[in-house]
Amino acid sequence: MKIVVLAGGLSPERNVSLSSGVMVAEALRSRGHRVALVDLYFGMEDWAGTPEALYDAPAPEVWRRVDHAAPDLAEVRARRKWKSESQFGPGVLELCAGADAVFLALHGACGEDGRVQAALDLMGIPYTGSGYLGSAIAMDKDLTKRLCAQAGIATPRWQLLEYAREDIPALGERLELPLVVKPMDSGSSIGVFIVHTREELTQALTAGLGFGGRVIVEQYVSGREIQVGVLEEKTLPSIEIIPKQGEFYDYENKYQPGAAEEVCPAPVDTGLEALLEETAQKVHALVGLAVYSRSDFIVDAQGRPWFLEINTLPGMTPTSLLPQEAAAVGIDYPTLCERILTASLEARKAGR
Fold first, then answer.
1. pTM of the predicted model, to two decimals?
2. Tell me: the pLDDT tens digits for 258-275?
3. Where in the sequence numbering do the catalytic residues fall?
């Protein structure tokens, strides 16, 4: 098959996405597919060859490694020669239209939030993962938690805050600590703060202004970080993440090799494993997702799992969790990518 792997984009998670894209492209090529890897935002503006020649081009080495910090998006915008407001770089949609399918290696806004999926749907281009509606719901942490709470799924207490700089002092006095502050529609733990003091709260809310002043403030639940993947509507074994530094599985712990210990299957009893898997599958179906996802949980000291959020395009980098879960049941990385591709084409045919 001719496959376009879309990566990068204009998202704080673009570097993670580029690393995922390189891995996916090379895995699919190893299975005999012709693959063109392209940055959603920059497109083909620096490509001197024909679109067809991109299918044989090696992956840029600089894309493989995820930096310690998220990129400066203002600097990314400034680097693009084409000064259009379009999130699709030059030639991207034309390249996708000439392929048999698009593998979405995108993460974060404009990639995981349903907008790219909707554009491809309108053009009749099949792509991997969930459809536009489920993607949009899952990216909205407030809406996802509302659906889960109504369905009886345990999730920490939360509220959505929409505020301006002048509101921060009053919020700093009113909100009950400890809590977690996180952007309403971002991933990779970018912009996430665990807050124990009023000073930390002020810092977290100030940082939240950079995400549009729309954040989730959530009850802090101390415990073990465990995540569960779903592949082809069936759960994979759970994986426990133990950061070696810091209080939680933040951006650096996620993507720097050796920064966290990851244990799969997670060392939990059969009853808890069954509950985690049942809940992950329930959320996957409740939000209307297809093919694959990964749900994040905290398991408290009493052994109770609390659902935090669900990811519709889980990371596929060298340190990512879903590939480790798949490997635990004998699914190697190239096979995982091809199964995602095949199952997604079936989902598109079925209108999901």
1. 0.90
2. 567 899 999 999 999 999
3. 13, 188, 320
